[in-house]
């Protein structure tokens, strides 16, 4: 009896659904699964330009500090000290090695007029010599010495006295044509214990210029030194070749050592 009632109920439901125009009931909808910790959307990557790295050729730069000490090498400096009258005995020879603003100095005694310094390094050198009270190398020898070089020097000393002259030319080289100026510096000289010249100007001193071979005086040949011991003359070349010019100071006659005159341009 119970089964007949259930069947009848089911039949009534089917009839009701058919009468309403619907089909069989849709299947149950299953909800989508949502993740507990959703990740944020990823932004699109921006376009990139490839970068190329290149190495600079060469090795790292190394700074080498050259020692200032002159000893410890294979070079040698030797020579003699003299005047026109012969060797100078017991002169002092100062050898200086120059490295940037540093100087290594050695003083040698030329007992018999000669000197020698070996086992030294190459580099820039300055050499001068003197003997008290009145002998002096006016212009030091300055040169570069190779690492294994053996260099020989001839140091000619000049005698300084109560009356000395040095000359300056303007222009520095005599022109073949036209005059040029000769400035004479007149001084009394002594030599210091460091081999330098103590030049004491001789002011208001009368002088006379005598021009010899290849040279003539333009204007006056007589003058007087100023407060600084200087007097100027004007001369002109008249023939190519060596010239002779002297200045007379009281009883002294001093050669000016002027350079030769050049040839006249053809």
Can you describe what's shown?
The chain has 266 residues and is mainly beta. Among the domains are: 71-158, Sandwich (Immunoglobulin-like); 164-255, Immunoglobulins (Immunoglobulin-like), CATH 2.60.40.10. The protein contains one helix and 19 strands. It has one helix at 2-20, and strands at 71-83, 86-87, 91-99, 102-110, 114-120, 123-131, 135-136, 141-145, 150-156, 158-159, 164-170, 179-191, 197-201, 206-211, 215-218, 222-224, 230-237, 245-249, 252-255. The strands form four sheets. Strands 3, 4, 6, 7, 8 and 10 form a six-stranded antiparallel sheet that branches. The protein is globular. It starts with a helix and ends in an 11-residue tail after the last strand. Mean pLDDT is 83; it is low at 6-20, 28-40 and 51-55.
Bulk shape: globular
Helix/strand-derived category reads: mainly beta
CATH architecture of the domain at 164-255: Sandwich
State the major sheet: 6 strands, antiparallel
CATH topology-level name of the domain at 164-255: Immunoglobulin-like
Entry keywords:
45% strand; globular; 266 residues; mainly beta; Immunoglobulin-like; single chain; five-stranded antiparallel β-sheet; 1 helix; six-stranded antiparallel β-sheet
Helices and strands, with pairings:
Layout: H1 2-20, E1 71-83, E2 86-87, E3 91-99, E4 102-110, E5 114-120, E6 123-131, E7 135-136, E8 141-145, E9 150-156, E10 158-159, E11 164-170, E12 179-191, E13 197-201, E14 206-211, E15 215-218, E16 222-224, E17 230-237, E18 245-249, E19 252-255
Parallel strand pairs: 1-9
Antiparallel strand pairs: 1-2, 1-5, 3-4, 3-6, 6-7, 6-8, 7-10, 11-12, 12-13, 12-17, 14-16, 14-18, 15-17, 18-19
């Amino acid at each position: 009896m119970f089964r007949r009632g259930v069947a009848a109920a089911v039949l009534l439901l089917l009839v009701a659904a058919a009468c309403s125009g619907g089909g069989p009931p849709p299947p149950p909808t299953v909800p989508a699964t949502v993740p507990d910790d959703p990740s944020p959307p990823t932004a699109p990557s921006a376009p990139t330009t490839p970068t190329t790295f290149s190495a600079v050729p060469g090795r790292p730069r190394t700074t080498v500090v050259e020692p200032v000490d002159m000893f410890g090498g294979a070079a040698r400096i030797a020579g003699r000290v003299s005047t026109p009258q012969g060797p100078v005995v017991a002169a002092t020879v100062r050898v200086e090695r120059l490295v940037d603003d540093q100087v290594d100095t050695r003083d040698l005694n030329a007992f018999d007029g000669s000197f020698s310094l070996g086992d030294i390094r190459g580099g820039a050198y300055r050499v001068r010599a003197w003997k008290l009270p009145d002998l002096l190398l006016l212009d030091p020898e300055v040169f570069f010495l190779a690492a294994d070089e053996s260099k020989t020097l001839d140091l000619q000393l000049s005698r300084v006295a109560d009356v000395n002259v040095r000359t300056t030319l303007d222009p520095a080289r005599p022109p073949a044509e036209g005059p040029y100026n000769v400035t004479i510096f007149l001084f009394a000289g002594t030599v210091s214990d460091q081999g330098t010249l103590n030049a004491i100007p001789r002011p208001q001193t009368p002088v006379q210029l005598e021009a010899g071979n290849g040279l003539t005086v333009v204007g006056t040949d007589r003058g007087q030194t100023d407060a600084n011991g200087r007097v100027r003359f004007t001369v002109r070349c008249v023939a190519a070749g060596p010239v002779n010019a002297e200045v007379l100071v009281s009883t002294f006659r001093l050669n000016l050592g002027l350079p030769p005159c050049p040839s006249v341009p053809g």
